[in-house]
Amino acid sequence: MNSKMIAAALLVMSALPAVAINGTLRPYSGEAKTGDIKWQSRAKQYVISFKQGKTEVSAEYPLADVMGLEIPKPAGLDKALAAAKSGQAASALPLLTKTVADYKMLVWDKVAARTLIEYYLKSGKTAEASKIADGILADDKDAAFSGAFAPAYWAIMLKQGKQEQLEKLLKRAVGTGDRASSAYALSMRGDIILAQGGDKPENCRKALTDGFLRVVLMYTDPECVEARAEAMVKAASCFDKIGMASRAEDLRAKAKEISK
After folding, report:
1. What pTM did the predictor assign?
2. pLDDT tens per residue across span 154-185
3. Do residues 109 and 74 make contact, with C-beta atoms less than 8 angstroms apart?
4. Which end of the chain has less Cβ packing within 10 Å, N or C?
5. What is the structure's pLDDT at 91?
6. Roughly how many angstroms between the first and final C-alpha of the chain, as a whole number?
7. Got the DSSP string for 187-249?
8. 250, exposed or middle or buried, with CB in 10 Å at 0-12, 13-18, 19+?
9. How far apart are CA 37 and CA 103, in angstroms?
């Protein structure tokens, strides 16, 4: 499936009625409900159908009233994510694309979308990456600065040279008080330094001290594991470029260890 086919598939799927996915919705007020959950984009709310005794009932919850969702991981998603990240994207793209559409605002859409965006950026297809990000942000504007999807959007902005907008989003990420978002924002500082000055030794050192190593050393919280592992890999690349191969390999090994 090529990029144009995927973009067309996403467009068609976005026009179809949302798929109901079984899971648990936890509101800020009231009891958690388990049943078939569907996101309504226009109304910006969730609708959940569940059994009350022997009767099938439904309830609506505006996005602002929902504390969290527990949605089982789609079958085959782990395999597709691993394939895409290992360079075997052809087999993974159809499932990732379908997950973005079927699980809209149901946790796993952002996971699949982030991997698709990373693949497109590595392939030099920034426009395709941007279309996927736009679809996510149309439903959840906070995803631009909060949560694990945000770094993928920041990477698009960095590629597009939107420095001012990117800086504003990074400040908002730090301002959320969320440790993981702050860690991703700090790691992006290192990416910006490299993007602006290239991978000369002095620039790599600056990216390490001002960005990647700060995440590695300061963000050891359990919720920051993914951000920390990514920072380790980026730091390793910098150490390679300044002739510190053993330090680079040590960081890569630690990144694999904490990612298990």
Report:
1. 0.86
2. 999 999 999 999 999 999 999 888 899 999 99
3. no
4. C
5. 84
6. 30
7. HHHHHHHHHHH-S-HHHHHHHIIIIIHHHHHH--SGGGHHHHHHHHHHHHHHHHHTT-HHHHH
8. middle
9. 10
Predicted confidence at residue 86, as pLDDT, reads 81
pLDDT at 12 over 50: no
According to DSSP, the residues that pair with 35 across neighbouring strands are 23
Buried b (16+ CB within 10 A) or exposed e, 183-222: bbbbbbbbbbbbbeeeeeeebbbbbbeebbbbbbeebeee
Q: What span, in angstroms and rounded, lies between the C-alpha atoms of 194 and 198? A: 5
pLDDT tens digits for range 13-29: 444 456 789 999 999 99
C-alpha of 248 from chain center: 25
Instruction: State the pairing for strand pair 33-40/21-27.
Output: antiparallel
- 4 vs 7, 12, 64, 125, 128, CA distance in Å? 5, 12, 35, 11, 8
CB 114 within 8 A of CB 152: yes
Determine the Cα–Cα distance for residues 171 and 174; give it in Å rounded to an integer.
5
pLDDT, tens digit (0-9, with 9 covering 90-100), for 91-104: 899 999 999 999 99
User: Which position has the token pair 């309830």?
Assistant: 59
What is the domain partition of the chain in residue ranges? 17-70, 161-260
